[in-house]
Amino acid sequence: MPFPLPSPMRLALDLAREAALAGEVPVGAVVMRGQAVVATSANAMRSLRDPTAHAEMIAIRRAAEALEAERLVDCDLWVTLEPCAMCAGAIAHARIARLYYGAADPKGGAVAHGPRLFAQPTCHHRPEIYCGIGEPESAAMLRAFFGARR
């Protein structure tokens, strides 16, 4: 019997579903500090007309604003898809303590795929990484989203 998903990933998946309904790539992100939700977001590149409006980027910005700090050292990031190079860089700069993500992204990911940013000697901060949490649901949502556009 599969384990129930942790509530931050369940929330991230709900945000991803909302993004898909809005025509955005279905990715959701949640920043947690202990058991408290600090910030949430979904992809908003199309609606904001901003190529940097990935769920992770918006959630990190909102968390920094909410905590009035440029570093999120005691925070965790939950995201439905493996972060890209831009988002992985922001995670390192923000000093996120732990990264939890759902689906792997062999094409655009930068954590376990592509540049493997956190493994680079020039990366000054490496969060603890936990992958595959909510992967089946996250991957299915992404496949359905892109399948409908082909």
Write the SSE topology.
Elements: H1 7-21, E1 28-33, E2 36-42, H2 45-48, H3 55-67, E3 76-81, H4 85-94, E4 98-103, E5 128-131, H5 135-149
Helix pairs in contact: 1-5, 3-4
Give an overview of the whole structure:
The protein is of the alpha/beta class. 38% of the residues lie in helices and 19% in strands. The protein contains 5 helices and 5 strands. It has helices spanning 7-21, 45-48, 55-67, 85-94, 135-149; strands at residues 28-33, 36-42, 76-81, 98-103, 128-131. The protein has a 5-stranded mixed sheet with strand order 2-1-3-4-5. β1 and β2 form a beta hairpin. α3 (55-67) packs parallel to α4. The longest helix has 15 residues, at 7-21. The radius of gyration is 14 Å and the shape is globular. The relative contact order is 0.17. The mean pLDDT is 96.
Number of extended strands? 5
* Mean pLDDT reading: 96
**Are there runs of 5+ residues with pLDDT below 50, and where?**
none
Count of DSSP-assigned helices: 5
Distance between the termini: 35 Å
**General shape:** globular
Largest sheet: 5 strands, mixed
Q: Taking Cα atoms only, what radius of gyration do you get, to the nearest Å?
A: 14 Å
What is the H/E string?
A: HEEHHEHEEH
Helix content: 25-40%
Beta percentage is 15-25%
Strand order of the biggest β-sheet? 2-1-3-4-5
**Which structural class fits the helix and strand makeup?**
alpha/beta
